Amino acid sequence: MYRKITLLCSLLLSAVATFAQNNNSLLWKISGKDIKQPSYLFGTIHLICHNDYVWTPIMQKALDSSVKVAFEMDMDDPDLLTKITQGMQLHDGKNSKELYTEDEYKQLTEYAKDNGIPVEMIDTQEPFSLLSMLYMKMLSCSIPESYEGNIMKLALQSNKEIVGLETVEEQLAVINNMSDDSIGHTVVEMIKDMNAFKIQYQQMVDFYKQQNLPSLYNILLETPDYKGDLNTLLYDRNTKWISEIETLANAQSTFIAVGAGHLWGDKGVIALLKKKGYKVEPVK
């Protein structure tokens, strides 16, 4: 009996390992239905150090063969930075001191002073803006790489049209619909124990370098600053994007680069496209 259980466990582990290996890719080809030329899905990570950056000749070939490039937002919108900066300001009479206890606010201001962050940011910026700045502290390099920025440069060099799956206003609405209390709590937890968050982030980077979307997605599900807002941050947006992706892919070959966390899972972009009848397969 023991030998049978051991054999069964071995077979299950082997199946899991094989499944993960077969799906180890950041690049996925979309074909089938009325698509004349394949389009491509590529999973990005928004901040990563140069030594961890993954970009292969196959990825470059997929980009070169595409007519258009789509990001979550239209990255070459000249007003993009202005819109984001304005959108990250506290509005509607919000006061940052309402989001934190007196002790938490004190910790935040002290951390800001010690790390060269303007204290005014705490008083004027949405907690998500502070969270984004703290992510920079988790990196082992001072100047990270940007997939969106690099892919956009390559696209512009080839005179490719750049489009967005959603507007800046729609993405800002997503952030504003996330719980300020939850994000504010995560900000405080991060400054209390930055090392723990660095370890978790490095795990994500390691899985990203392995192109292991299933494991990367599982870590994302347990990330404290996302866990309570997965519908707002991931699932609802994935669903809205499908019609945009269909329109783009049916018109011409498009290289679609979005956060890797959007691709995997039952409600991920890959699964939703398959449910629509498209063939979506990893490109090795």
The assigned structural class equals alpha/beta
| Number of domain units | 1
Number of helices: 14
Order of helices and strands: HEEHEHHHHHEHHHHHHEHE
Number of E-state strands: 6
Strand order of the largest sheet: 4-3-5-2-1-6
Share of residues in strands: 5-15%
Low-confidence sequence ranges: 1-20
Largest sheet: 6 strands, mixed
Oligomer: single chain
- Approximately how much helix is present in the residues? 55-70%
Radius of gyration: 21 Å
Distance between the termini: 40 Å
The shape, in one word, is globular
Overall pLDDT metric = 84
Task: Explain what the structure shows.
This protein has one domain (25-282). With 284 residues, it is an alpha/beta fold. It contains 14 helices and 6 strands. It is globular and about 60 Å long. The protein has helices spanning 2-22, 57-65, 80-87, 102-114, 120-124, 127-137, 147-157, 168-177, 180-192, 194-209, 213-222, 224-227, 230-251, 269-275; strands spanning 27-31, 39-44, 68-71, 161-164, 254-259, 279-282. 56% of the residues lie in helices and 10% in strands. The model is unreliable at 1-20 (pLDDT under 50). InterPro entries: TraB/PrgY/GumN_fam (IPR002816), YbaP-like (IPR047111). This is TraB/GumN family protein. Pfam families: TraB_PrgY_gumN (PF01963).
